[in-house]
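Q: Please design a sequence for this.
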């Protein structure tokens, strides 16, 4: 018979799988990160080089290799398509659901563990990150596993041997995170656990692993991470490691990479939307956790609070900002909400629960208004018109589910079932997005149809190039490297004059001018297509052929 934590872990993983796996291979990858990372994984198979990562045929020192290794393995099994390249993220998300369910059930009971896993799996950002071909799901899982293992390693209860084992397992999880996305994994984990330990010391509840276990943990971490870094340095020199860790890791914190920045309050709306719909319960859950943290035995509440605040503050002051950076705090928020729902089940905070649940319909309305205002101000009305029916259905379904949650919480007999009502609604929303809304949005992507046209008509020796329009990584992924990057007219001329034929992707407003420029060089040129539609194009494809350019 399975233990209580094991049952919670299994049910948590199963629920995460139900939310994450259906429709995983639907549609094409999204630009720009998914296609870039997918292409790096594919080029492992093309080059048969598992040490030096490549993009567009060139060495690429932006991220460590773990995601690409796993994705390349699945691409070898299933083909280099959407399903194989998103599968590593999906499996990491499923594993995280099980890990959070297990740890919470071990400390707070089976029901709390199940709710924590369900809340985590049905929060909007968690579901999105688990369905993208990026390495953040692996990073978030490794940090969650390390934090939870090290919580057990410093817990006073349990034997010294269990604490030692937990500390070593946490170190291995950090090695996985380091190979997934660099030093950010140990930095965040050490910050979270370090601040929590300071709080625990004041509470008088602290134990720890033995010195031998710490040495073994260090050996495990170094032994798992160092070989690839050594192999990379031996192949291409220490400059590659300096670029990877210095520029693309520490450089992201101290400087702005790829113009990805934002104001100091950048992550506040990200967390509000990313933890939807459960964000409605976070204020009362955090207040309850603060009260619980004042008790000596409130170590798990203290951990969840620290785990929420420390990474949020850390990335708030980073110069480079991206929404997915704070996804690592979602497990902590899920634990806070699960612990609070246990209080509600026991009859506490009933009025606050009803009020919190009642804010969800208001939030749905605010999101609808924000989408409408954003689309009008950014001239996306026509694009979103394709999704009008899907967005309307999502809004109505979420509104109905939130109202049912309010009713369930308000009645003492049904209050214990209220989180499951909202979880089913949120899970259905995620699946609807994956199975209905995402396929409906497929025609909005300009690069895949352009790439299909090129692949169907290209001849040996033809050059492929892109300039003035986003989607270069997608063009590489959906054709074959190399793809030239055109910066200006001189780049266009050198591209169309270098070989017999050329396919150039450019802005629609530049297409006619560039066609005339190619013709002035005595080449035949035509605008083959505009995508995603001729009425509202975002990119145009020019075909250049005919006699070579005259000398000079």
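A: Design:
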């Amino acid at each position: 018979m399975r233990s209580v934590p094991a049952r919670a872990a299994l049910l948590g993983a199963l629920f995460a799988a139900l939310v994450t796996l259906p429709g995983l291979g639907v549609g094409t990858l999204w630009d720009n990160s998914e296609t870039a990372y997918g292409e790096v994984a594919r080029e492992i198979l093309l080059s048969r080089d598992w040490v030096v990562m490549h993009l567009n045929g060139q060495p690429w020192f932006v991220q460590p290799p773990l995601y690409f290794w796993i994705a390349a393995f699945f691409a070898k099994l299933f083909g280099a398509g959407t399903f194989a390249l998103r599968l590593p993220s999906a499996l990491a998300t499923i594993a995280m659901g099980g890990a959070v369910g297990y740890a919470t059930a071990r400390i707070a009971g089976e029901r709390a563990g199940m709710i924590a896993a369900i809340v985590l799996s049905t929060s909007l950002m968690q579901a999105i990150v688990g369905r993208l071909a990026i390495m953040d799901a692996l990073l978030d899982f490794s940090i969650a596993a390390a934090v939870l293992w090290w919580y057990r390693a410093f817990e006073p209860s349990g034997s010294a041997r269990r604490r030692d084992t937990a500390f070593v397992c946490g170190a291995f999880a950090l090695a996985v995170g380091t190979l997934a996305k660099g030093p950010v994994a140990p930095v965040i984990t050490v910050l979270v656990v370090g601040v929590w330990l300071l709080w625990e010391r004041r509470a008088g509840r602290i134990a720890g692993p033995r010195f031998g276990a710490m040495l073994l943990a260090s050996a495990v971490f170094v032994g798992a991470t160092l070989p690839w870094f050594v192999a990379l340095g031996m192949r291409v020199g220490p400059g590659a490691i300096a670029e990877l860790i210095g520029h693309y890791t520490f450089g992201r914190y101290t400087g702005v990479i790829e113009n990805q920045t934002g104001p100091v309050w950048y992550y506040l709306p990200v967390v509000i939307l990313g933890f939807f719909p459960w964000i409605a319960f976070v204020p009362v859950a955090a207040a309850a956790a603060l009260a619980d943290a004042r008790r000596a035995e409130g170590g798990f509440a203290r951990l969840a609070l620290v785990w929420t605040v420390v990474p949020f503050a850390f990335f708030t002051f980073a110069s480079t900002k991206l929404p997915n950076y704070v996804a690592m705090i979602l497990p902590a928020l899920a634990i806070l909400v699960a612990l609070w729902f246990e209080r509600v089940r026991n009859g506490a905070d009933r009025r606050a629960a009803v009020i919190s649940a009642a804010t969800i319909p208001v939030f749905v309305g605010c999101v609808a208004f924000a989408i409408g205002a954003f689309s009008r101000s950014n001239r996306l009305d026509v694009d979103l018109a394709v999704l009008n029916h899907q967005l309307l259905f999502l809004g109505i379904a979420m509104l109905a589910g939130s109202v049912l949650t309010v009713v369930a919480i308000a009645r003492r007999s049904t209050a214990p079932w209220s989180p499951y009502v909202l979880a089913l609604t949120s899970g259905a929303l995620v699946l609807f997005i994956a199975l209905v809304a995402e396929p409906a949005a497929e025609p909005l992507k300009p690069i895949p149809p352009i790439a299909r046209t090129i692949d169907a008509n290209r001849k040996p020796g033809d050059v492929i190039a892109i300039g003035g329009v986003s989607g270069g990584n997608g063009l590489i992924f959906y054709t074959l490297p190399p793809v030239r990057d055109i910066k200006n007219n001189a780049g266009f001329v050198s591209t169309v004059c270098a070989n017999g034929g050329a396919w150039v992707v450019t802005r629609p407003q530049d297409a006619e001018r560039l066609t005339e420029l190619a013709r002035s060089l005595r080449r035949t040129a035509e605008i083959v297509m505009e995508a995603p539609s001729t009425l509202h194009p975002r990119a145009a494809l020019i075909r250049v052929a005919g006699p070579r350019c005259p000398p000079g």
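Q: Thanks. Anything notable?
A: The radius of gyration is 26 Å. The beta strands are 54-55, 58-59, 463-466, 484-485, 502-506, 524-531, 539-545.
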